[in-house]
Amino acid sequence: SHFMESASAPNRLRTGQRVRLFALNSIVYNDMMATIVNWEDSSARYMVKLDGSGKELNIKPENVALQDEALSPEVAGTAAALPAATEQDFTCAVCYEEYTQDHRAELPCCGKAESTVQYCHRCIQVIVEHGFEGTVGRCPTCAQLMSIENGRIVTGNLVSQCRMCRQEKAIANTRNMLCELCVLGRQFVMRYECSACHRFQVIPHPMWRYQHDGPDSFGNVSWACHQGCGDYTHWRITTESAAQIPPEHCPESWGRREEWLAHIRHVRHAEIAQRG
């Protein structure tokens, strides 16, 4: 084990140390034992792993005590005054805040009431607000397009013929009637390497979405090479272009999902801090 490396981390706890959780708002995890994983500067909290389930949570420093550390009378009184845990309480998998069931986002695709992964309604709102046109976002679990209509979260918002590719698809840009791929292709015109001649070409289509084996692999969908092949070949995005793709638009295999959720988490924590 070692001390937290961040200058802003409380230096009394080490990674790997056993701790007890107490005085949490939702009281589901009160008096549970956990292990310190690391310190997150963005949220100013410890990441801990719960005993038994292995679930990871972000916990404020004031809600963590060493395994054999006696609670102060004030803290002990606060913890004792909390009601018993209920199954209705949950921790949002994006912002890591604890909520009662009435704050749970009811997603038509994922996050059912019995699911172990739950999201608060406000985090889903923020995802939508930061999505296409500020009205269409992605489900943080399955990446399906979703929007909010009359306070309800719905998927596949509008299915119609895309004006660019002429295919029947979910429309991500209602103003221009474009599907998700065509919106991305117009917004991110990137440079790619041909799998046959290894020359480079700018392609107005999100070919990176087909690189399921990682950003260094060639995709499984072809596009016409105009650099000398005169044929349909496979492509991979250049390193410089890949760095410009927002993490929420990258294939799951690229491992950037947490980068996307960390941004949403930062926005939510800023909101919470502003409310005081």
Primary descriptors:
18 strands; globular; 5 helices; 24% strand; 276 residues; alpha+beta; 3-stranded antiparallel beta sheet
Describe this structure in words.
The chain has helices spanning 73-81, 121-129, 180-187, 239-242, 257-275; strands at residues 18-21, 33-40, 45-50, 56-59, 64-66, 90-91, 98-99, 137-138, 145-149, 152-155, 159-161, 168-173, 178-179, 190-194, 200-203, 223-224, 232-233, 235-237. The protein has 276 residues and is of the alpha+beta class. The strands form six sheets. The chain has a five-stranded antiparallel beta sheet, with no helix packed on it. A hairpin with a 6-residue loop joins β6 (90-91) and β7. α2 crosses α5 (257-275). The two termini are 34 Å apart.
**Annotation, overall tally of beta strands:** 18
pLDDT average, as an integer?
80
In order across it, which strands form the biggest sheet? 4-3-2-1-5
Rg measurement, Å? 23 Å
Which geometry do the CA atoms define? globular
**SS summary, helix count:** 5
Helix content: 10-25%
How far do the termini sit from each other? 34 Å
The largest sheet is: 5 strands, antiparallel
- Low-confidence parts: 1-7, 70-87
Helix/strand-derived category reads alpha+beta
The SSE string, one letter per element, is EEEEEHEEHEEEEEEHEEEEEHH
